[in-house]
Specification:
Layout (H helix, E strand, L loop, with lengths): L14 H22 L9 H17 L5 H33 L1 H8 L10 H37 L10 H34 L6 H20 L2 H6 L2
Helix pairs in contact: 1-7, 2-6, 3-5, 5-6, 6-7
């Protein structure tokens, strides 16, 4: 697929590439809007079910004399967020190196029979596009990681077992669970961005394949949230 020529003679992105990018925006931002503000906000899904278990966790922790197990769980959550944030930085570094040698990468990959021909500016845009997604994912994971530190502070301030039935203790447990849920929400946002970034790899092969990948990711994310076996098990 050869790019069109602009008025100054430089090749521009093909119309199919532009349409594929618009379709990505509809899938990515449209799903995020539907979950946060649209019709899916009021629909019970996996996140809502897990949030109930988080509240149950904190209410149970109130009645424990020894909370070592809870501390280990919080450490595990923090480590997971740190892992994803670090991975995003590593991928971003690789994409930066790829951008510096975009011409060479383009020449090599276009030797493959299934990779469509495209101008260099199109390849550079696709790499920048993936870099943008990884930056968004990093900020989501980094904020989720930071929130787990705040959760640790809130958890350390939980009232002791003898005061578990007081109104103050119940409110504190609820707020701690809400903070855990907030961390989980940003983690989910980062993971969803990673899913779409993986679909974005198909853009180097074909814009049509990229559009199909975006649609598949949207369907997969929706099914895992609202139709998965995990949701059925957790939503007790």
């Amino acid at each position: 697929m050869v790019g069109q020529q602009s008025t100054n003679g430089r090749p521009t992105m093909d119309l199919l590439d532009i349409l594929a990018f618009v379709w990505f925006c509809l899938c990515y931002f449209g799903y995020a809007w539907a979950v946060s503000y649209g019709p899916l906000k009021s629909r019970r899904g996996l996140v809502a079910a897990v949030n109930d278990r988080r509240l149950q966790w904190m209410e149970t922790a109130l009645r424990r004399d020894i909370r070592i197990m809870d501390s280990q769980l919080l450490t595990s959550l923090s480590s997971g967020n740190a892992f994803f944030a670090s991975t995003s930085v590593l991928v971003l570094g690789g994409l930066t190196a790829m951008l510096g040698s975009a011409d060479d990468v383009k020449t090599r990959l276009e030797q493959l029979p299934f990779v469509t021909d495209a101008p260099l500016v199109s390849w550079e845009f696709k790499i920048l596009f993936l870099m943008g997604l990884m930056i968004m994912a990093f900020f989501a994971f980094a904020w989720a990681f930071r929130l787990t530190h705040y959760v640790g502070t809130m958890f350390g301030a939980l009232p002791l077992h003898p005061d578990a039935d007081t109104e103050e203790a119940k409110i504190h447990a609820k707020k701690t669970a809400q903070l855990v849920a907030l961390s989980g929400r940003h983690l989910n946002s980062g993971l969803r961005t990673i899913y779409f970034a993986i679909a974005g790899l198909a853009w180097f092969v074909s814009p049509i394949l990229f559009a199909i990948g975006c649609a598949l990711v949207t369907v997969i994310v929706y099914r895992r949230e609202y139709k998965s076996e995990a949701f059925t098990v957790i939503d007790i």
